[in-house]
Amino acid sequence: MGYDACTHTNHARIAAVLCRRSSSPRTRSPRSTKRTQSPGAINTAVLLCSSFTMVLAERAGQLGRRKQIMVFLVLTLILGMAFLGIKGYEWNEKFQEHHIPGPAFHMEGAGLQDHAQLFFSLYFAMTGLHALHMVVGAGLLSLLLYQTYRGRFSAAYYTPIDMVGLYWHFVDIIWIFLFPLLYLIDRHGPKP
């Protein structure tokens, strides 16, 4: 039930971004007018690499190779933490630039402050929800590491590794939709 609520909430937020853009097609995304698409691109590469290491952990689980399972889970966890670190850097940059929606919000050169605030509200809500899911994934990876260390998994029983892998890949796929939606769409549109 909680999973369904989060999924529907995320769908609603994506729909809100699309509606905002379609209601004012001449306004570019404030997010895509600055140099800040680089952290999003780097995070995309980091998450794709983390999916690869998770697949390798799943394969090692199928083969019952405990040491390899642990190595690939650690690599996946490190990449997940790198994603969160880059996201934290990016949020801090937005905080320093006063792009946090609220009374102190200010954006230089943005003709439509309300549209910019709405965009950043949705940006922080969607990336925050994604980051929360990354933290949950990191906790699950840590649990798998502990269980692997204790010798719980073998070639005959590796289902939890596969289940956490599915969760991790789902979170990565969500980012694949968020990245173009928040960073790339309207990148080359007309300037306001």
For the termini, the CA-CA separation is: 43 Å
* Whole-number mean pLDDT: 84
CATH class: Mainly Alpha
Task: Calculate Rg over CA atoms.
Answer: 19 Å
Helix content: over 70%
The helix/strand series, from N terminus to C terminus, equals HHHHH
Strand fraction band? under 5%
Largest sheet: none
What structural category do the secondary elements indicate?
mainly alpha
Which CATH architecture would you pick? Up-down Bundle
Number of helices: 5
Based on CA inertia axes, which overall geometry fits? elongated
CATH fold-level label: Four Helix Bundle (Hemerythrin (Met), subunit A)
- How many discrete structural domains? 1
Number of DSSP E strands: 0
Can you give a write-up of this model?
With 192 residues, the chain is mostly helical. The protein has a single domain, classed as Cytochrome c oxidase, subunit III, four-helix bundle (Four Helix Bundle (Hemerythrin (Met), subunit A)), CATH 1.20.120. Helices cover 74% and strands 0% of the residues. It has five helices and no strands. It has helices at 2-23, 37-63, 66-96, 113-149, 159-184. The model has no long low-confidence stretch (mean pLDDT 84).
Short description:
With 192 residues, this protein is an all-alpha fold.
Give the helices and strands, then pairings.
Blueprint: H1 2-23, H2 37-63, H3 66-96, H4 113-149, H5 159-184
Helix pairs in contact: 1-4, 2-3, 2-5, 3-4, 4-5
Summary keywords:
192 residues, mainly alpha, Four Helix Bundle (Hemerythrin (Met), subunit A), 5 helices, 0% strand, elongated
